[in-house]
Design goal:
The structure holds two protein chains of two kinds. By secondary structure, chain A is mostly helical. Chain A is built from ten helices and two strands. Chain A has a two-stranded antiparallel sheet with strand order 1-2. In chain A, helix 6 packs antiparallel against helix 7. The radius of gyration of chain A is 21 Å and the shape is globular. Chain B has one domain (9-197). In chain B, 71% of the residues lie in helices and 0% in strands. Chain B has eleven helices and no strands. The radius of gyration of chain B is 20 Å and the shape is globular. The chains are: A mainly alpha, B mainly alpha. At the A-B interface, helix 1, helix 2, helix 4 and helix 6 of A face helix 2, helix 7, helix 8 and helix 10 of B.
Chain lengths: 261, 237
């Protein structure tokens, strides 16, 4: 597209180990989660791999370069393996460093967004697709973790900000890069955005709400306009909507033995 | 490194049939309808191979190229749906076959990974996923906590052991046939040992607690319940 820089010549100044660090941080989070859920050694390793490499793997499958990027060198797998081993033995310690993990996780999320978006832009995808790929790279691991562990994905449950920072940070990166700004600066800004939103969600309790139905409100607004004096129609379905959302709290799980004889 | 032998076609077919049968019986026991049984049986049978082919990205997945494979998966579903009670009586037979099939899936995947020139560690990774993928998809579809990750008898460990055995022997220069037999044997030995002696897979061992206690350091939130580090307790199955 016009005005875009030659993306194949863009090179980040961040050192190459940053990607491994991002994988390691996500992997540690996954391993800690598995340890907390009471999974065994296979569970800890699976979830460390899924959380650490899930996003990059999904991106690799979608872009068709998985075997040449992720699987061509052993290092990604070894880094994930290392984080699984650390998570297996030090899960208790890691889960006490909540704030530090939030900061590191925010940075890793921003970084993965830029890696995915950059890869998509390099093979000539449209900016919107690049935002999608960047978001998927950042949150894919988390999604895969919850699906594999048999939980309702944290990503789609009402609660702390998770996908929003990834979407916003990918958008910031793609907008900055396609408007011919320095991609290094774009990457740092995107990482700062993700960090700010994640940390803000953690410390100030920014939360996403569940779907709110505007139809009743719109109707009462309209009817008031027609005949002043009519009371607004109460949302009689409010209870129904709140019932629809399963109340799943951290650590709780539906009866594991259900359906088995 | 010797060149990989072509895997016999019936290995794939047996793996798919056995996988579909176990998946179908699982779905039947859960009381799913025909669609559910067919879906769960099909995905358990072909899931591992499909994940393998997607990860290796070597063209169209084998499942789609060979209509017989789909037939085998459907056959497993039909047997499980209509002859469930009879099939349950044969549980020891297909559990034995399932044990062999851990090694079978591993061999199919490592051979393919080797052909496209992956290194040893990615080979082990892909092979282990291919071997456990079917059961994992079954549990996701049935919305059960994954059997693979719960403390229990070795399954993932057997797959990992088989993949590691094959890859180590192969890269050490052993003849392919020796590596293949050793991999099959490794999976069977690990699984049978686990069943026979009742050895279950270990759960995370929190070293940090021990170290902190030894050092006499009490940090904020060292109460596991407060720190939210207490584990989920699984009911004995």
């Amino acid at each position: 597209m016009a005005g875009s820089p030659d993306l194949s010549e863009l090179a980040f100044t961040l050192p190459a180990w940053t990607t491994y660090a991002a994988v390691a941080i996500s992997g540690l989070a996954g391993a800690t989660y598995a340890a907390k859920r009471g999974f065994d050694v296979v569970g800890v390793f699976s979830l460390a791999f899924a959380t650490g490499l899930g996003g990059l793997t999904l991106t690799g499958v979608l872009l068709g370069n998985l075997t040449t990027t992720l699987l061509s060198s052993p290092w990604f797998l070894l880094v994930a393996l290392g984080s699984a081993i650390i998570g297996f033995f030090f899960a208790g310690l890691i889960s006490r460093f909540g704030p530090i993990m939030v900061v590191l996780d925010g940075l890793a999320m921003g970084f993965l967004c830029t890696v995915g978006a950059q890869e998509a832009l390099q093979i000539g995808l449209a900016p919107t697709s690049a935002v999608f790929i960047g978001t998927l790279t950042a949150v894919g691991g988390l999604l895969l973790r919850d699906v594999l562990a048999g939980d309702a994905p944290q990503l789609v449950r009402p609660g702390a900000f998770i996908a929003m920072p990834a979407v916003i940070s990918s958008t910031v990166f793609v907008v900055m890069v396609t408007s011919a700004l320095d991609s290094n600066a774009a990457q740092l800004v995107a990482m700062a955005t993700a960090l700010f939103l994640r940390a803000g969600a953690y410390w100030f309790g920014w939360q996403t709400g569940s779907a709110s139905d505007l139809s009743a409100r719109a109707w009462s607004f309209w009817s008031r306009k027609q005949e002043p004096g009519i009371a607004p129609v109460p949302d009689e379905f409010a209870e129904y909507y709140t019932d629809m959302i399963p109340k799943i709290t951290e650590g709780e799980h539906p009866d594991p033995g259900q359906g088995k004889p | 490194m010797t060149t990989a032998l072509a895997m016999p076609g019936y290995l794939d077919a047996t793996a798919i049939l056995i996988g579909a049968l176990t998946g179908g019986l699982y779905a039947t026991r859960k009381g799913l309808d025909p669609t559910g049984v067919l879906l769960v049986a099909f995905s358990t049978g072909v899931g591992g191979g499909l994940i393998r082919d997607v990860l290796l990205q070597s063209g169209i997945p084998v499942l789609l190229l060979n209509p017989l494979f789909q037939l085998y998966a459907a056959l497993g579903a039909v047997i499980a749906f209509f002859f469930g009670r009879f099939a349950v009586k044969l549980t020891p037979a297909y559990e034995a076959l399932d044990t062999f099939m851990i090694g079978g899936w591993v061999l199919l995947a490592v051979t393919k990974a080797e052909q496209i020139g992956l290194g040893p560690i990615p080979m082990i990774f892909v092979a282990t996923i291919a071997a456990v993928g079917g059961g994992l998809i079954r549990d996701i579809l049935c919305h059960d906590p994954p059997e693979l990750m719960r403390p229990g008898l070795f399954y993932g460990i057997a797959a990992f052991g088989a993949a590691t055995t094959y890859t180590t022997l192969d890269f050490a220069g052993a003849p392919t046939i020796v590596a293949q037999i050793a991999a099959l044997a490794a999976a069977v030995i690990l699984r049978v040992t686990s069943i026979h002696y009742g050895i279950t897979s270990p759960t995370p061992y929190d070293v940090s607690e021990v170290i902190l206690r030894k050092l006499g350091i009490g940090i904020r939130g060292s109460d596991p319940e407060q720190a939210g580090t207490e584990k989920t307790k699984w009911p004995a199955s």
